[in-house]
Write a structure and sequence with these properties.
The complex is a heterodimer of chains A (about 110) and B (about 120). Chain A is an all-beta fold. Helices cover about 0% and strands about 55% of the residues of chain A. In chain B, a hairpin with a 4-residue loop joins strand 7 and strand 8. Classes of the chains: A mainly beta (about 110), B mainly beta (about 120).
């Protein structure tokens, strides 16, 4: 098993550009989540999904979109990048409910 | 709103010492608590998961306890080694009134340095 994979590892964007952060897991996990990690703020939940076709907002959803068309993939879209979105983004998955979370290696995003 | 704190923020110990990391949460209504390790520039690695009905979990030199009523968890590391140097985070999955969705809240972490 590859576990949870994320691409790209690093990305630099200009303000206003859009992009998609990819996340995939091969463990057949129902639950997938996106977090951002900022110094002094810890990890904060952006969006999550409880299964294919079902998504919901977390603590800091503004400026981000998600979709879940398959169990394996959970991409995160930045619609119009802003410097405030400079952060490290982590994807996580878990199964069954209320159980251990597994994290991907992260994507380090810089918005200029 | 659930809040998670961790004390100390940073800790430096000589190799071989036993140590305790602390995690506190404000609302005892949780499904579980999980301890993670994060190495610089890397993702999070799960260490131990304690369900709300459990009091402790052990894995090798690690032991985590949970006291829901007081809103506390401790991570005990026995015979510390330089390879244990990392940031340790705790996270609670907070209870949801409709039991739908996810609500994980992370602490800020404790940065541990084990000196040879």
């Amino acid at each position: 098993n590859a576990g949870v994979t994320q691409t790209p590892k690093f990305q630099v964007l200009k303000t206003g550009q859009s992009m998609t952060l990819q996340c995939a897991q091969d463990m057949n996990h129902e639950y997938m989540s996106w977090y951002r990690q900022d110094p002094g703020m810890g990890l904060r939940l952006i969006h999550y999904s409880v299964g294919a076709g079902i998504t919901d907002q977390g603590e800091v959803p503004n400026g981000y979109n998600v979709s879940r068309s398959t169990t394996e993939d959970f991409p995160l879209r930045l619609l119009s990048a802003a410097p405030s979105q400079t952060s490290v983004y982590f994807c996580a998955s878990s199964y069954p409910r209320r159980n251990e979370q597994f994290f991907g290696p992260g994507t380090r995003l810089t918005v200029l | 709103k659930q809040e998670v704190t961790q004390i100390p923020a940073a800790l430096s110990v000589p190799e071989g010492e036993n140590l305790v990391l602390n995690c506190s949460f404000t609302d005892s209504a949780i499904y579980n608590l999980q301890w993670f390790r994060q190495d610089p520039g890397k993702g999070l690695t799960s260490l131990l998961l304690i369900q709300s009905s459990q009091r402790e979990q052990t894995s090798g030199r690690l032991n985590a306890s949970l006291d829901k009523s007081s809103g506390r968890s401790t991570l005990y590391i026995a015979a510390s080694q330089p390879g244990d140097s990392a940031t340790y985070l705790c996270a609670v999955e907070a209870y949801l009134w409709d039991n739908y969705g996810q609500n994980f809240v992370f602490g800020p972490g404790t940065r541990l340095s084990v000196l040879p």
